[in-house]
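Usage

Read records sequentially. Each one opens with the input sequence:
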Amino acid sequence: MKIIISNTSDTPLYQQIKDQIKDAILKNELVEGDPLPSIRSFANDLQVSVLTIRRVYEELEQEGFVVSQVGIGTFVSASNVELLRDAKRRLVEQKMQDMIQTAKSLNISKDELNAMMDILYEEV
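and closes with the structure output:
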């Protein structure tokens, strides 16, 4: 798992890390049962405080993306599959909203947009 953080971003470090882990889970780069690095080693790798990583893991667990087992580690969770499905749908919906706004600004009709979507969907 490759995490890239920026000290110049307006987004807090913990949020950058959390968002990238969630994205990896939603894109199936991390799947059910995959272990996350230990808090200490992850903090060392990213050169951030262990408190930052602890906060990331705690929030991910509260949201149902991971489960922590004392003395064993933190793992990608499957207990909330519906949450993951909904999050994936929201990700696609956000991208579709951007696409629709762009199409409208370029005066592309809904029919043209649907035709493009059909062609591109079949190609992938």
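Summary fields computed downstream for this record:
- The CA atoms of residues 11 and 115 lie 38 Å apart.
- The helical segments are 13-26, 39-46, 50-62, 81-105, 110-123.
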